[in-house]
Amino acid sequence: MSGIFGIFAFDEIWRVSKFVYYGLLALQTRGQEVCGIACGGSDGIVTCAKRGYVDQSFKENELEGIGGWYGIGYVGADPQNVQPVTVRHNGITVSVCYSGRIFNLRELTKRYNLPEKENESILFAKILASEVRKSGPMNAAALLMEELEGVYTVLAITDQKEMVAFRDSHGVKPLTIGSYGFDYGAIASESAGLEVIGADYKSDIMPGEIYLFTSYSIEREQVRAPQPKYCAFEYVYYARPDSIINEKSVYDVRVKIGEYLAKESPVDVDVVVGVPETAIPFAMAYSNATGTPIAMGFMRTGRHTRTAIKPTYFERLVGVQLKLNPIKSVFSGKRVLIIDDSVVRGTTMKNVIHLLRNKMGAKEVHVRIGSPRLVNPCPYGTEVPTRDELIAANLSEEEVAIVTGADSFKWLSIDSLIKAIGFPREYLCLRCFGGDGDEGPTHR
Question: What is the SS3 assignment for 231?
Fold first, then answer.
């Protein structure tokens, strides 16, 4: 998983590196392993990309050293994929970051006479540079959208004082646009990335749409007909609750998820506890719908850690313990309902239930999950493990309850998730949830 951010200031007196920095901080939940910033100005493009958290990677003096009035940034979960990538190719310098998966890059390398063994991000940057040199950023983006097979959102800047943003025709990955005053000048994977820097969210970049920013104008072109296949898991887990993606409030969707959980699988308990932070809206809505008291059952230690995207079991386990340190008085002697956003392997949920029963003294522990069963890995860049690691792909709800030690265990239905999101079923990618016929977008 990853997030991208860009800003174009239209005036050379601006220094945008700190704006990019704060935008990336807002998108940090989309990837915590790598981050990077590239800014362009009179002296060309300056790039700084590293492994680690945004606030640990960029110090004040480094940001001060990155000049320029237009720039892009990236956060990601793959430690081997550090972006943005900046290349000098065919007489032009281009810096690129993208979110998603492109499946035919290696095939395109032959057409562009590029080394097949080169890093994929570098290959993509060189291909884009070749086309920008021939016909400019708008035409280059339009051509690549015809050639590329995969799902992607792309941000790029050139040493010709240009920034281009585009999104594939399926729109699996979100991309929003915002403005300062009358000028559209900021792009982010989620609207929260715009708002933290004081920009106003205006709309989503449509699937199949391109925006080109220059010092004199903003061009916008719909080059491919939208065929929406928005990622349903964005609304359940990845996106921030204060974001709007695909013109839907993530918070409102999560409230509806909690209401549907209450309708589908109510249970007689003393207290409802949501696993922070994602599942809190689920739990609040469940509590309101059923009249069951809600409590803050867990305290988080340190920074917000997305444990599901940590690369190793040990890191996930430590991350869960930091994220889910229980408050004993909430659980002691109580019948408890735990609401979480998703269950992948089930090992961390098993540890939590064991802790609540044997150390916190819970009388009963029931579990409700605010997403359907995760049964398939994702080919489009969302970190879902292989099928043999997914507990929901191999066990029934009753069997999962036995394995994890829960008194009962229920997932949200696919139909209820679709209703909560509010798009027609055919507009959503439900591949990871195994919906009948919902194979996600085609590669092209």
Answer: strand
Mean pLDDT of the chain: 91
Owner of token pair 């065929």: 227
**Three-state DSSP string of 324-336:** CEECHHHHCCCEE
Q: Partners of 163 in the beta sheet?
A: 157, 213
- Taken in order of first residue, the domains within the chain and their CATH numbers are 2-227 (3.60.20.10), 243-433 (3.40.50.2020)
| H-state helical runs in 179-227 | 191-195
Which own/partner pairs from 438-443 qualify as long-range (CB within 8 Å, at least 24 positions apart)? 440/172, 440/229, 440/379, 440/380, 441/151, 441/170, 441/172, 441/227, 441/229, 441/380, 443/103, 443/104, 443/149, 443/150
Q: Are 223 and 145 in contact (CB under 8 A)?
A: yes
**331: closest CA among 370, 284, 273, 290?**
273
With tokens 């941000």, the residue in question is 155
CA atoms within 13 A on the CB side of 20: 36
Q: Which of 147, 82, 157 is nearest to 112 (CA)?
A: 147
Residue at token pair 């699937």:
207
What's the rounded Cα separation, in Å, for the pair 233 and 252? 15
Q: How does pLDDT run across 345-385, given as a tens digit for each residue? A: 888 899 999 999 999 999 999 999 999 999 998 888 777 76
Is residue 322 very low, low, confident or very high in pLDDT (cuts 50, 70, 90)? low
Section 71-92 average pLDDT: 94
pTM here is 0.92
Q: In b/e form, how buried is each residue of 17-29, taking b as 16+ CB within 10 angstroms?
A: bbbbbbbbbbbbb
Residue 162 pairs in a beta bridge with 158
Question: By CB neighbour count within 10 A (0-12 exposed, 13-18 middle, 19+ buried), where does 249 fall?
Answer: middle
Please classify residue 226 by burial: count the beta carbons closer than 10 Å to its beta carbon, then call 0-12 exposed, 13-18 middle and 19+ buried: middle
Nearest in space to 356 (alpha carbons), one of 373, 390, 333: 333
Q: What are phi and psi of 351, to 5 degrees?
A: -65, -40
First-last CA distance in the chain? 20
Spatial contact of 286 and 266, defined as CB atoms under 8 Å apart? no
Decide which of 63 and 389 is more confident: 63
Model confidence over 237-258: pLDDT tens digits? 999 999 999 999 999 999 999 9
Using CA of residue 365, residue 366, residue 369, residue 370, what is the dihedral sign? negative
DSSP string covering 142-159: HHHHHH--EEEEEEEEET
Rounded Cα gap, residues 33 and 20, in angstroms: 17
